[in-house]
């Protein structure tokens, strides 16, 4: 019997992951699981570059806009739901495609998550209150004090990640980093990573073009509708935070757009830093012919079967 395989298409934002994932899925006659944590939320369509209606009709996608920004949805929740969906899909397919720029979410499915202690919801409430009253810097300083190792690893501009690390510390008395890289449960499928790469100038140019296209497509109006909910975790993300500052009168619109581009470039850099640590990734250039990608995938699938 052929081994079941998850083929993960990864890379920085705006590099062309959706297009390549759809091409591979069509060639293999299978379906796609999205592991882009920003695209889970149905209210955030334009600013997260959700695949177009035409793309979604071409190949069945799962975990696209299936949650509300009001819902608490963690990487642990996603791992549980995606594992269940994979079990269903593997009844019909030998391979399933996974695509997304959220490295933590991709790795959670392929390798599993570390086990963490239960956290009293009151701890999270207190940390969210601290964020609201004292700002992001207060969380950054606390994490540096109690867990300098994780402070060096984490995106310190992401309040959700900071709160998660601090709530584990407050619940257990142990730093978040001490729970990482424990022995995880073994997954019942094989995996294959395809990473898309390009010169930095190309990535940055694509990002700038994408942001301009988002603005033309109505990102300003989308952000305006979400402005009353700006303190929710889901909205603490590039593309929305900058426009909220414009609505607050802190930025001009032109400056807000330039900040979206700058912060998206920084986000892409962090994505690549995460991915470069993964020695399993087969890297391909963004302009490679799809037939060449399929040749490399088929070679790897054959070797997995041997």
Describe the fold and architecture:
The protein is an alpha/beta fold. The protein has two domains: 5-113 and 187-305, P-loop containing nucleotide triphosphate hydrolases (Rossmann fold), CATH 3.40.50; 121-179, Histone, subunit A. The protein is 52% helix and 9% strand. It contains 13 helices and six strands. The chain has a six-stranded parallel beta sheet, with helices on both faces. Strand 2, helix 2 (53-58) and strand 3 (61-62) form a beta-alpha-beta unit. The longest helix is centred in the last third of the chain and has 24 residues, at 253-276. The radius of gyration is 20 Å and the shape is globular. It starts with a strand and ends with a helix. The mean pLDDT is 92. Belongs to the IPP transferase family. Its EC number is 2.5.1.75.
Mean pLDDT across every amino acid position: 92
Q: Estimate percent helicity.
A: 40-55%
Let me know the CATH homologous superfamily of the largest domain: P-loop containing nucleotide triphosphate hydrolases
Number of helices: 13
Number of strands: 6
Q: How many domains make up the coordinates?
A: 2
Protein structure class: alpha/beta
If you consult CATH, what is the topology of the largest domain?
Answer: Rossmann fold
Q: End-to-end distance, in Å?
A: 11 Å
In brief:
Monomer. The protein has 13 helices and 6 strands.
Looking at this protein, list some descriptive labels:
6-stranded parallel β-sheet; 6 strands; alpha/beta; 306 residues; single chain
């Amino acid at each position: 019997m052929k081994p079941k395989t998850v083929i993960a298409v990864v890379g920085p934002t705006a590099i062309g992951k959706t297009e390549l994932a759809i091409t591979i899925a069509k060639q293999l006659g299978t379906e796609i699981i999205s592991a882009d944590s920003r695209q889970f939320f149905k209210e955030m369509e334009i600013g997260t570059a959700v695949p177009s209606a035409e793309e979604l009709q071409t190949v069945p996608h799962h975990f696209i806009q299936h949650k509300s920004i009001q819902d608490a949805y963690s990487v642990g929740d996603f791992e549980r739901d995606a594992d269940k969906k994979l079990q269903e899909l593997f009844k019909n397919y030998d391979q399933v495609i996974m695509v997304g720029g959220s490295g933590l979410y991709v790795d959670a499915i392929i390798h599993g998550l570390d086990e963490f202690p239960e956290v009293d919801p009151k701890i999270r409430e207190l940390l969210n209150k601290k964020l609201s009253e004292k700002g992001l810097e207060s969380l950054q300083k606390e994490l540096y004090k109690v867990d300098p190792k994780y402070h060096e690893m984490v995106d310190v501009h992401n309040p959700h990640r900071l709160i998660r690390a601090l709530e584990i510390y407050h619940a257990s008395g142990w730093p978040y980093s001490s729970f990482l890289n424990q022995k995880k449960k073994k997954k019942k499928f094989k995996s294959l990573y395809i990473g898309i790469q390009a010169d930095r100038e190309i990535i940055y140019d694509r990002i700038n073009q994408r942001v301009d296209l988002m603005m033309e497509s109505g990102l300003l109006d989308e952000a305006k509708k979400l402005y009353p909910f700006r303190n929710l975790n889901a909205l603490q993300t590039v593309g929305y935070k900058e426009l909220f500052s414009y609505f607050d009168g802190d930025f001009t619109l032109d400056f807000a757009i330039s900040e979206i581009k700058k912060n998206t470039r920084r986000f892409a850099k962090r994505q690549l830093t995460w991915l470069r640590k993964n020695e399993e990734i087969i890297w391909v250039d963004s302009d490679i012919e799809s037939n060449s990608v399929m040749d490399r995938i088929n070679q790897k699938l054959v070797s997995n079967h041997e």
